[in-house]
Amino acid sequence: MTVRQLHNLLRGLDDTHELVISRGTSGDVLQEVWRAAQDEADHAYAIWREVHGGDAYLLYRAAADRADAALDALVAHGACA
Questions:
Q1: Are 44 and 63 contacting, i.e. CB atoms less than 8 angstroms apart?
Q2: pLDDT tens, 34-53?
Q3: In terms of Cα–Cα distance, which of 71, 42, 73 is closest to 59?
Q4: Closest CA relative to residue 41, chosen from 68, 16, 80
Q5: How far apart are the C-alpha atoms of 31 and 25, rounded to whole Å?
Q6: Is 70 exposed, middle or buried (0-12, 13-18, 19+ CB in 10 A)?
Q7: 68 has pLDDT over 60
Q8: Rounded to an integer, what distance in angstroms lies between the CA atom of residue 2 and that of residue 48?
Q9: Which percentage of the chain shows pLDDT scores above 90?
Q10: Among 1, 14, 55, 61, whose CB has the most other CB atoms within 10 angstroms?
Q11: 3-state SS of the chain?
């Protein structure tokens, strides 16, 4: 499947506005979303440090950007102590 075919396939999907996180919920969803995103960024950073290269760095930066956005949402909602 080409990138163009994948984009065309995904364009036809409706956004359910659901979050899927890899951590168990402690009751504070924003906290869990941020923690899961930060865990992913930490893992991507470790891979980049081991593998080096542009692709690994881009994956790390994308994960770090998601973690930053999740933290911004957490702080904006006053859920960060």
A1: yes
A2: 999 999 999 999 999 999 89
A3: 42
A4: 68
A5: 9
A6: buried
A7: yes
A8: 26
A9: 48
A10: 61
A11: CCHHHHHHHHHCCCCCCCCCCCCCCCCCHHHHHHHHHHHHHHHHHHHHHHHCCHHHHHHHHHHHHHHHHHHHHHHHCCCCC
The two structure tokens encoding residue 48: 């980049």
Six-digit token string for 2: 């080409």
User: Which two structure tokens, joined as six digits, stand for 4?
Assistant: 């163009």
Which pLDDT score is estimated for 78? 82
Which residue type sits at 34? W
Burial class (CB in 10 A: 0-12, 13-18, 19+), 27: exposed
Q: Under a CB-based contact definition with an 8 Å cutoff, are residues 44 and 65 in contact?
A: no
